[in-house]
């Protein structure tokens, strides 16, 4: 049985509240879980102690048994000091595509050429 430590959503519409749970990976997100390990309330300020509450002992128990944390839970565990920080791939999604970069370079060349032309006269 593949175990995951993940978030199960609760709360009403536009008012999210999450339980940190140990669950079989084949179960639905808000479905059956084996044990509740903590809570996460994203509506609270980031410096609030009540934003993330975790039973570190039980989480460590499940990690020792081979449970895999999801990305969000892994980040929470890194912040709590339970796991070592891992190197993540820095995706370059914000950069424009190749054609847009070529157009920008062409535009910059024209601008520099235009700036140099009056200076020579």
Helices and strands in order:
Elements: E1 3-12, E2 15-24, E3 35-40, E4 52-54, H1 56-64, E5 68-69, H2 71-80, H3 98-120
Parallel strand pairs: 1-5
Antiparallel strand pairs: 1-2, 2-3, 3-4
Structure, explained:
- The protein contains 3 helices and 5 strands, in the order E-E-E-E-H-E-H-H.
- With 121 residues, it is an alpha+beta fold.
- The protein has a domain at 3-80: Ribosomal protein S16 (S16 Ribosomal Protein, Chain: A), CATH 3.30.1320.
- Strands 4-3-2-1-5 form a 5-stranded mixed β-sheet.
Name some characteristics of this structure:
3 helices, elongated, 121 residues, alpha+beta, 5-stranded mixed β-sheet, S16 Ribosomal Protein, Chain: A
CATH domain class of the domain at 3-80:
Alpha Beta
- From N to C, what is the helix and strand string? EEEEHEHH
Calculate the terminal CA-CA distance, rounded to whole Å.
Answer: 79 Å
Helical content stands at 25-40%
- The shape is elongated
Radius of gyration: 24 Å
Q: Which CATH architecture of the domain at 3-80 would you pick?
A: 2-Layer Sandwich
Global mean pLDDT: 88
Extended strand count = 5
Short synopsis of the structure:
With 121 residues, the protein is α+β, with helices and mostly antiparallel strands. Helix content is 35%, strand content 26%. The chain has three helices and five strands.
